[in-house]
Amino acid sequence: MLARTCSFCGKTIEPGTGIMYVRKDGAILYFCSNKCKKNMIGLNRVPRYVRWTNEYHELKKMRTRS
Questions:
Q1: Residues 6 or more apart from 5 whose CB is under 8 A from it?
Q2: From CA 56, how far away is CA 59, in angstroms rounded?
Q3: Angle at CA 18, nearest 5°, toward 27 and 57?
Q4: Which is higher by pLDDT, 30 or 66?
Q5: What whole-number distance in Å separates Cα of residue 21 and Cα of residue 66?
Q6: What is the pTM for the complete model shown?
Q7: 6 annotated ligand binder
Q8: Which domains, from first to last, does the chain contain?
Q9: What is the C-alpha separation between 8 and 31, in angstroms, rounded?
Q10: Which pLDDT value is given to residue 65?
Q11: Ramachandran class of 17: left when φ > 0, alpha when ψ lies in -120 to 50, beta otherwise
């Protein structure tokens, strides 16, 4: 089985867990929890600005290096 990563927070999702969401345009999004799904789809939040996501921490590291 292929381990997938969450489309919102960036965590790895073990096979048999998580949520697969298919948009109308055919894009497939994988979520590790309902929290991630609600933040991305329901609340339209961008992962770069949510503090508990991996993308936020990577961006923060880049800012502190410069």
A1: 11, 12, 13, 30
A2: 5
A3: 80
A4: 30
A5: 37
A6: 0.82
A7: yes
A8: 4-65 (2.30.170.20)
A9: 7
A10: 82
A11: beta
**How does pLDDT run across 6-51, given as a tens digit for each residue?**
999 999 999 999 999 999 999 999 999 999 999 999 999 999 999 9
Does 9 belong to an annotated binding site? yes
- Tell which residue, 4, 5, 17, has the closest CA to residue 54: 5
Query: Residue 19: beta bridge partners?
Result: 31
Token pair in block for residue 34: 């309902």
Task: Dig out the tokens for 22 from the structure.
Answer: 């298919």
Q: Which class for 6: exposed (0-12), middle (13-18), buried (19 or more C-beta within 10 A)?
A: buried
What pLDDT score does 66 carry? 66
